[in-house]
Structures are given as C-alpha cells and as structure tokens.
Amino acid sequence: MNRPEALALAQKTVAAMAVNGRGYPDQPFDAQVSAVLRVAEFLIMTGEHR
Q1: Across-strand partners of 25?
Q2: Which long-range contacts (CB under 8 A, 24 or more apart) does 44-47 make?
Q3: CA angle, 24 then 27 then 33, to 5°
Q4: Hey, which of 1, 34, 36, 39 has its CA 20 to 30 A from 19?
C-alpha cells in the first residue's frame, strides 16, 4: 500500500473510532493525528511484507 492510500484509510479508520456514542470526538485532536500516523505506518509496513 502506498503512502496516500495508507493515510486515507488511516484517517477514515481513526475518524470512525474516535467518536463516542453521540457522535462527538472522544479524543483530543493531537491524539487523533498521532493515531492516524501510527495506523498509516502500520499499513505501509504490512503492505511491503506481502
């Protein structure tokens, strides 16, 4: 998976996980950005090993 694809998927995944039951953000913005970067890095790394 290339970097733009990984970042797009990571943003979508984190956005879906970062809201509470009422639809409001559950985590601070900096925590969400950090999570996006970690998920994207994971996706890029696992894509290279396939």
Answers
A1: 19
A2: 44/1, 44/2, 44/3, 44/6, 46/1, 47/1, 47/2, 47/6
A3: 115
A4: 1
**Whole-angstrom distance between the N-terminal and C-terminal Cα of the chain?**
10
Q: Which two tokens stand for residue 27?
A: 């985590």
What is the per-residue pLDDT across 1-25, written as a single tens digit (0 to 9) for each?
889 999 999 999 998 888 888 878 8
Residues 44, 15 contacting (CB under 8 angstroms) = no
Q: Where are the alpha helices (DSSP H) in 1-50?
A: 3-17, 29-48
